[in-house]
Amino acid sequence: MNLHEKCLLRYLQNPDELAYSTHILKLNNFILEKQFILKNFVAKSGLFDYTERVE
């Protein structure tokens, strides 16, 4: 069972906790987004050569 399923199950069992479950999902999505950015862009930024060659 993943985090989204756990939050849905928690909501169905305790509808009053919808705000908490929504906050957890938003936080999880934020962390996943940051990990994606770090993995795919920041880690590869050292591969770019920004200097221009003058001949």
Describe the structure.
- The protein has two helices and no strands.
- It has helices spanning 3-13, 18-42.
- Helix 1 (3-13) packs antiparallel against helix 2 (18-42).
- The model has no long low-confidence stretch (mean pLDDT 76).
Tally of DSSP β-strands: 0
Percent strand: under 5%
Helix content: 55-70%
User: What global shape is seen?
Assistant: rod-shaped
How far the N terminus sits from the C terminus, by CA atoms, comes to 60 Å
Architecture blueprint of SSEs:
Elements: H1 3-13, H2 18-42
Helix pairs in contact: 1-2
Write out key terms for the chains shown.
55 residues, mainly alpha, rod-shaped
Q: What is shown here, in short?
A:
The chain is mainly α and 55 residues long. The protein has helices at 3-13, 18-42.
